[in-house]
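Mods, move this if it's the wrong board.
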Amino acid sequence: MNEEVASTPCFRCGVCCTKYQIYLTLVEARRIADESGLTWEEWVDKYTSPSWPGNDSFLLRRYNGACVFLERVVGCNITRCLTQPFKPSACREWNVSLYQRDCQEGLAKYWGLTVSPLGQLEGSDQDLRRFHSLLESVVLTEDADPQRKVRSH
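Not the wrong board. Structure tokens:
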């Protein structure tokens, strides 16, 4: 396997967050509610989907076609998860890969890049430089990013 494919961190395009609705266990939901500073009832009302009226598990609402906790960073091609320090296991277990169809969609949509069958990123030199620069900044930002409170809608 190509080393670039194996070592690519999440480049935070948000495509996966627009395609999947996140399932939460009660423990995960309670933790996010506690971190948000809302009462349990307020949090359930604002952030969980009424289409899954669970008591032991929940689905996160969608907002503007994406996870309610996804925020696009203005002026660039990345997103921010407002639950990053305590995000659900379904999100933590997402396997970022240049072979992942959703990741390839994000590469094409936001950076004009494709992935060859051998796992090589392909695109203009400028787009490749811009993307690699982004990867460096994402890794540095995640290392230094303070815990954020979730937004209210």
